[in-house]
Amino acid sequence: MNENDDKNKNKNKDNNNEDDKKDGFSFDDLQKQFQDALKNMGATANSFVIPVNKKPKDTGTAQQEKAKEEDDPKKILKIIKNFKLKPKEVKEYLDRFVIKQEDAKRVLSVAVCDHYNHVRGCIEKSYDNSWEYTKQNVLLLGPTGVGKTYLVKCLANLIGVPFVKADATKYSATGYVGHNVEDLVRDLVKLANGNTELAQYGIIYIDEIDKIACGAVDDNKDVSGRGVQINLLKLMEDSEVALQSQTDMMGQFESVMDVMHGKGKNKKSTINTKNILFIVSGAFSTMSDMIKRRIEGAQIGFGVEGVAAKEKTNYLRKSTTGDFIKFGFEPEFIGRLPIRVSCDELLPKDLEKILTDSEGSILKQYVHDFDGYGIKFNISDDAIKGISEKAYKQKTGARGLMTVMERIFRNYKFELPTVGIKKFDVDAACVQDPNKALSLILNESRNLHTEKMKEDIKRFSAEFTEKSGFKLRFNKAVENALIEESLEKGTTIYTLCSAKFKDYPLGLKLIVDDLPNKTLNITVKMVKNPDKELSNKIAKSYKE
Questions:
Q1: Distance from C-alpha of 336 to C-alpha of 232, rounded to nearest angstrom
Q2: pLDDT tens, position by position, 265-278
Q3: Which residues are bridge partners to 163 per DSSP?
Q4: DSSP 8-state symbol, 211
């Protein structure tokens, strides 16, 4: 490059700056103003700095991250193209994790397989655009803890395609107080790493959908839910959603910058929801009572009570579109959810199967937890039955298992790791009276407890040497004195030693010349009064 070229380049740069000034601002000024605004709002301006005409250094890590971002959509796209699962195969996979709910498994299996077969056809352009495809949006009904959310989670794990999961209660009609329902679609785009072509064939799952019903005030329904329903039904049918929210200031600023640099001309600004599958769920507990009154009111003659009692847990199966409208849903909204299936209440026998047969059983978590302390956890069939019966009384479905098991085993987890036992057998007595059973275990394991405390003394000594460079030597008399005091005070031997000898690392440095091989023999007197004995040793050393 010669001297004239340099002059021309500088001249052009000056001209560009002059043009910016003529328009009333420069890009640097605009960016500075934006950073100042962020500071006033409490944001960190440095995290939003957009470099101007500077290309960042492309490190190896940056290249890997960039390659990963580009590869994720391709990987997901490949999964969809290779999706060949049959509905029965999907159900058999769900059977491994979710107990009962046969109808829900069948419905979801068919809906998901149909959806991804349609998606594959759209991607491969084997479907004619003139052909109208009606989505099988699904509504799951049933009491809490029966596996509605878990079913969708297992589907996501099986297919390997990201799902958006959200709670309907956090959305509002305007989006200024609470979230805007369109954020669901934007979240789907984010999960697809900005690939709108891929995101438009995704799946959105919304829980607690019954909480946005807008019935009578006496029924404690939020009347603002009607606005959320109207916005949702637009998404579930066919709608164009802007990729940038109006309340997203950073996104709006980036869009302006893209336009200024000429990057936003061909960039897609919306995403269509026509091919997004929606799965929604809710407990609908009050609607179950409403259907019960409707059915019992229609019964005439003898045997009414017997019929009602028999069908007590299945009233949601008899729900009609009229019931949903009476409950507080807009006719247009419930019409967008043509596939409806009710999940059954989990009985004690079902909860037993969850503990013993489900691959996602919480019982495996407890086995793993005790194994972390070197304790083998065994549980009898009678104990499992007792836990299931207690959990059923919680009326929270499978979630009751966690509540009951934590209440039973919390003290076992607290006490047994310091006792030294290697095996923990849980029987019906442990479930019925956990505290009494724990006391028996502690009394029977006194010898093991003593050996465990001796091991903890050695563990403390090893850590003391590693941190300070000095060695502490404990004889049997000292060990017995420490164990006796530990049992008397009800504290662990490790904590006791840590408290007694906390000042020794510094003190031993003052008398290091008096310690052969930097080793101190601990005496019973030091156990009784560690600070006084250390002070005496230091005073004697300096006196000599």
A1: 10
A2: 555 678 888 888 89
A3: 203
A4: G
- Token representation of residue 451: 């050996």
Cβ atoms of 31 and 257 within 8 Å: the answer is no
Closest to 122 (Cα-Cα) out of 90, 156, 77, 187: 77
Tokens (6 digits) for 383? 């104990």
Q: Tell me, what amino acid is at 257?
A: M
pLDDT digits (tens, 9 = 90+) for 317-334: 899 999 999 999 999 999
Q: Is 466 left (phi over 0), alpha (psi -120 to 50) or beta?
A: alpha
What pTM value is reported for the model? 0.72
Q: How many residues does the chain have?
A: 544
**For the CA atoms of the chain, what is the radius of gyration?**
34
Residue 373 included in any domain: yes
Whether residue 292 contacts residue 318, with contact meaning beta carbons closer than 8 Å, is answered with no
* pLDDT of 54 strictly over 50: no
Whether 57 has a pLDDT exceeding 90, the answer reads no
DSSP codes, 230-250: HHHHHHHHS-EEESS-TT-HH
Give 475's contacts (C-beta < 8 A, 6+ positions apart): 521, 522
Average pLDDT over the chain, rounded to whole? Answer: 80
Round to whole Å and give the CA distance between 204 and 198.
13
Which domain covers residue 164, as residue numbers? Answer: 70-284+319-342
Q: Which residue has the tokens 């207690």?
A: 390
Return d(Cα 329, Cα 286) in angstroms, integer. 14
Same structural domain, 110 and 35: no
Q: How many domains does the chain have?
A: 4
